[in-house]
Design brief:
heterodimer; A: mainly alpha; 3 helices; 88% helix; flat; B: mainly alpha; 2 domains; 4 helices; 65% helix
Chain lengths: 90, 141
């Protein structure tokens, strides 16, 4: 079994199933904070998927997208928690 | 030889991401979900990026991979702390089986400040604030 087939038939399906499981929590989360954490985790798994896709397609430019996604995930979570806390003050 | 090393690293990384997503689906409580998610996902993505850094014999890929890993390791605990703090202020209930809630009565709900030890004793004597531990399993599910 080559490494390419291993990436295609084992690693990428596991990451896809992970995204689907987190998406269930994103839909049914009882509170807003559950949804924020699920969104953060989906973006983090997306960085992993982009990394594997970079390896498979030999396009190293795609790693820049992963840097941008890491930034956006952090800023999004911080902004969400800031405004959730503000909303409670009213 | 390198292929075996990359296979092992990527397997550990993918499995820890999978366990993080199982944890966020199955854990009974927001705080338990948070504690499962952040650590395992950061480890998994870090290992996958390490695979990419090993495979490409290029200094720019290694630099980018190390930068992303470093950034994730720095920022994800901060984000988790902020969202956990916001969740406690908005009254997210703890799991029914929680034994002790050490923050109960310690936060000033108006100014969002943590009280010091002297005021804690005062709060224990005179204040009987209702705790945030849930009464049923359904509340946190």
């Amino acid at each position: 079994m080559t490494l390419e087939a291993y990436f295609d038939y084992f690693i990428l399906p596991i990451l896809t199933i992970s995204v689907i499981l987190v998406f269930i929590r994103l839909i049914k989360g009882p509170k807003v904070v559950d949804r924020v954490v699920a969104l953060d985790l989906i973006i983090t798994i997306g960085i992993g998927i982009i990394t594997i896709f970079t390896i498979r397609s030999n396009q190293i430019v795609l790693l820049d997208v992963a840097i941008m996604l890491a930034l956006i995930a952090f800023l999004g979570t911080v902004a969400f928690s800031f405004y959730i806390e503000k909303r409670e003050d009213d | 030889m390198i292929d075996i090393l990359i296979g092992i690293l990527s397997t550990i990384g993918a499995l820890s991401i999978f366990f993080a997503s199982l944890g966020i689906l199955r854990m009974p409580d927001f705080y338990l979900r948070l504690s499962v998610t952040v650590k395992a996902a950061t480890l998994g993505v870090g290992l996958l990026l390490l695979c990419a850094a090993i495979i490409f014999p290029d200094i720019s890929v290694s630099t980018k991979a190390i930068a992303i890993t470093f950034f994730l390791i720095i920022t994800s605990p901060i984000a988790a702390h902020m969202i956990g703090r916001a969740a406690y202020f908005t009254g997210t209930p703890l799991w029914k089986g929680t034994i002790i809630d050490e923050l109960n009565g310690m936060y000033d709900k108006e100014t969002h400040e943590l009280k010091n030890e002297k005021q804690i004793n005062m709060a224990e004597i005179c204040g009987d604030e209702p705790d945030q531990i849930a009464d049923t399993e359904e509340e946190t599910k």
